[in-house]
Specification:
Largest sheet: 10 strands, mixed
Oligomer: single chain
Number of helices: 26
Helix content: 40-55%
Shape: elongated
Radius of gyration: 34 Å
Length: about 850
């Protein structure tokens, strides 16, 4: 019995191959159509699988969570180290917790100093994740404390590039920021983790050091200082995320009672590690998956129409086979075999296209996209592609197979005169209307994203990013041991060296926040107004610490008063400048100029800076990104001169910061030129992370640009396929109605009447398809609400313009077969029948 089944299947396959080979044009069109649909679907599915579906490469991933401290203005704010230590002791639902913060180190002792990207981590960080070194060991608890012997773990990549992958590297010493550290472990290159403050940028992590040895008293003593700390934790077996949140809410409440001045407005924020890593990409990928599914359905609809057309031309063949004794089931099986064979060949070609498409998607994926290392055509994706191919072949083969089981009758004038909506072309018309509807949804989605990008590029950044270059400057640790005046003099010399470089228009060395880059906040209150009872209730503003030329570099407008000058130095009275948002919020009915701010430094600190006086108001700068600034609860901004930084803070930081340079002409000030100028002053200074501000602005909307590009590609592909579909159906129906058209023309119908008849049939399908598409788009574009900016999901202008575009393209697709119908010779048509 199995042998007979196998023989019958083999016979069907051989016959199917012969039938497809006899119609090469039909076969190639069907295969190419399917390949496009399956290839696009597989490529996006590989991205969705890698980012959303594939488990994290860590033991018991569902027990892993991310930890933040929710503070005013920030849901995922930094954790203060004292609070973290209390969390660790007071919780009842965690196996363990760890914190981490992003840092940089100057590697010296072997040629020119080099900047390394690193992370400070708790000793429990890697054990929580279940990640072990390939050489050596993790940090011990004794090494994760102040005063411990300095240790370091390095990555496999650094071990290979700097130490030639030596096996005896454990126990060796390396000098980071002038501190000799003992190498205790080498982490595998297979370890990939992207989350807030951990491997977010393009720089790869090179080194890890214990966070507990950070030598800064405020880090251990001030509960209001976050220092960029974020955390991870592993839940106890059986503990749910909700139970952990309730437990940490209890801990936060107890800390608020114990430390009301600081912790009243601070509480733990817990979410799954995977959700934190995926972030805002989940809705984007879901929208793209729906879009590419539409493309696949349109492809299947086109192939189903092709097979229906072929089944009509093969009715005589089916009738003869049934008359000779073939069962209806055998005919159905043969047709399904042919359709599945087509889909498998199309699927195989689609995998090739998917490989190309996946590579293209990875090349356009925005910087910081999580889990890019997990994206690829792995076994689950290949099995999915195979399943889709079989399913597509079965589905689009059912319609012609079902039709083949029906009795074949002669063609009559009555039947052929029913038009496309009649018995003869009803199924094909339904397929085309469905294709038109899905194409319209995709076009509307792409149109909404295009309008969003146009809206975003019209947003006022508050500064001019053109010809502005930034880079990081890091000095040797020896500067932290110098007196304040020496460090200040060094900053002035660096500024003068850079400002005197040919091609440089203006220079400012900055601390604090950077527009659309990093942020830094400072609590304050206004002198003369009632001070809040608790520090937690103090207002907060974004803090920029800059040099006098900063406004020239960024071309930020001065609204009132003045900006800093070289006279605003360590010997003069403290000054500050605020932005217009700050002025409007805190001085709505009074003049801010001449008012004093208190930055809420410890009043008992002998190095506390004098309260600065507001001397100017500048324009507001877009800090959080083109699409995020308006949504952020924190807008107020204040500026302070670098020359007035207290000596204590200078000695802690040493010589370093972010350099902003305005070039006279694009490319006039390269990093190599800047590095050469800086080395004229001190060869131990390291310059790194050069970037153009225009790129920084563009990167702030990278995810929206990525979505628009892919939706646009899918929409154009859907438009092409839908147009081919309506063209194919009309061409087929014109051929089927040749006798009817001949009779009409013989009875006096004009060619324009024939043209109108065919166009009416096409227009009917188009209008119905557009109507269905508009209804579907109203429902589905709500998924995109969070991706849009300045545009509503139901945007009349987009809906109308896209509908008109689809109508025009469909009309053109209808016109070609309509022209063919106009050229029918009445006598020839009647003779052929």
């Amino acid at each position: 019995m199995p042998g007979k089944v196998f023989s019958a299947v083999a016979q069907d396959l051989r016959y199917g191959i012969r039938i497809l080979a006899k119609a090469p044009v039909f076969s190639l069109i069907a295969i190419a159509t399917l390949a496009l649909g399956i290839g696009a679907n597989t490529a996006i599915s590989s991205v969705v699988n890698g980012v959303l579906l594939k488990p994290l490469p860590f033991h018991d991933q569902n027990q892993l969570v991310s930890l933040f401290e929710e503070i005013p203005n920030f849901k995922n704010g930094s954790i203060s180290y004292p609070n973290f230590k209390d969390w660790r002791q007071m919780n009842r639902t965690f196996v363990d917790m760890a914190v981490y913060r992003s840092v940089g180190f100057n590697l010296s002792g072997n040629g020119e100093p080099e900047r390394l990207h690193g992370e400070m981590i708790s000793a429990s960080f890697f054990p929580i994740l279940g990640v072990n070194p390939i050489l050596g060991r993790n940090f011990s608890a004794d090494e994760d404390r102040l005063g411990a012997n300095p240790t370091v773990m390095i990555t496999e990549g650094l071990c290979k590039s700097k130490f030639g992958s030596r096996k005896d590297i454990i126990g060796q010493r390396m000098i980071l920021d002038d501190v000799g550290r003992t190498i205790v472990g080498v982490m595998p290159s297979s370890f990939h983790l992207r989350m807030q403050n951990f491997q977010r940028g393009e720089e790869l992590i090179n080194v890890y050091v214990p966070v507990g040895e950070f030598n800064e008293p405020k880090f251990y003593n001030e509960r209001g200082a976050g220092w960029g700390l974020d955390g991870i934790g592993r839940l106890r077996p059986g503990v749910t995320l909700q139970q952990a949140r309730e437990d940490m809410a209890r801990v936060s409440h107890e800390l608020a009672i114990a430390y009301p001045d600081i912790d009243t407005a601070r509480k733990a924020y817990v979410l799954s590690l995977k959700d934190e890593m995926v972030g805002d990409m989940r809705p984007i990928l879901i929208v793209l998956l729906v879009a590419v599914a539409f493309v696949l359905l349109i492809s299947c609809g086109n192939v189903a129409n092709l097979l229906l057309a072929r089944s009509n031309s093969r009715q005589q063949e089916f009738a003869i086979r049934i008359a000779l004794g073939a069962e209806h089931g055998r005919v159905v099986r043969q047709l399904l075999t042919e359709s599945i064979l087509l889909s498998l060949i199309g699927g195989a070609l689609g995998l090739f296209l998917a490989k190309i498409g996946t590579g293209a998607a990875l090349a356009t994926i925005p910087e910081g996209m999580p889990r890019t290392n997990d994206i690829g055509l792995d076994m689950p994706v290949l099995l999915f592609s195979f399943f889709i191919s079989i399913l597509a072949g079965t589905v689009f083969g059912l319609a012609p197979a079902w039709k083949a089981t029906r009795s074949s009758t002669g063609k009559t004038l009555t039947e052929t005169g029913r038009g496309l909506a009649g018995k003869r072309g009803g199924a094909q018309a339904l397929f085309v209307m469905g294709e038109m509807a899905m194409a319209l949804v995709l076009l509307i989605g792409a149109g909404l994203m295009i309008r969003t990008l146009f809206q975003l590029w019209g947003v006022d950044t508050g500064f001019n990013p053109q010809r502005v270059m930034t880079f990081e400057l890091s000095g040797p640790d020896s500067f932290t041991k110098q007196p304040g005046p020496t460090i200040r003099a060094a900053y002035r010399q660096v500024h003068d060296k850079l400002a005197g470089t040919p091609g440089v228009e203006a220079v400012s060395v900055n601390w604090g926040a950077q527009p659309m880059g990093s942020d830094d906040e400072e609590e304050f209150w206004i002198i003369g107004r009632p001070k809040p009872a608790h520090q937690a209730d103090l207002p907060m503003a974004i803090e920029y610490v800059v040099e006098p030329d900063y406004l020239r570099v960024m071309q930020i407008p001065l609204k009132r008063g003045r900006f800093f000058t070289s006279a605003d130095n360590e010997h003069s009275a403290g000054v500050a400048v605020i932005d217009e948002t700050f002025a409007a919020k805190y001085f709505p009915d009074s003049d801010p100029l001449g008012q004093y701010l208190d930055l809420n430094n410890n009043p008992n600190d002998p190095d506390k800076a004098p309260n600065p006086q507001i001397i100017g108001v500048v324009g507001h700068v877009n800090q959080w990104g083109l699409d995020s600034d308006d949504a952020s609860p924190l807008h107020s901004q204040m500026y302070f001169p670098m020359a007035q930084i207290p000596d204590k803070d200078l000695k802690m930081r040493g010589l370093g910061g972010t350099v902003f340079i305005r070039e006279k002409t694009p490319g006039a000030a390269s990093l190599a030129v800047m590095r050469s100028r800086i080395h004229e002053f001190n060869s131990e200074l390291v310059s790194h992370n050069a970037e153009n501000m225009t790129k920084t602005v563009a990167d702030s909307i990278a995810s929206k640009r990525f979505t628009m590009m892919l939706l646009g590609v899918f929409a154009l592909l859907a438009l092409l396929l839908a147009s081919i579909g309506i063209y194919g159906v009309l061409s087929y129906m014109v051929g089927q109605r040749t006798r009817e058209i001949g009779v009409r023309m013989a009875l006096g119908a004009q060619r324009v009447d024939v043209l109108r008849m065919v166009l009416q049939d096409g227009a009917r399908m188009t209008v119905i398809g557009i109507g269905i598409g508009i209804a579907a788009a109203i429902a589905l574009t709500r998924l995109m609400a969070g991706m849009l900016f300045g545009v509503k999901p139901f945007d009349p202008a987009t809906f109308v313009s896209v509908s008109l575009l689809l109508s025009l393209v469909a009309l053109f697709a209808c016109y070609v077969p309509a022209r063919k119908a106009m050229k029918v010779d009445p006598m020839e048509a009647l003779r052929q029948q």
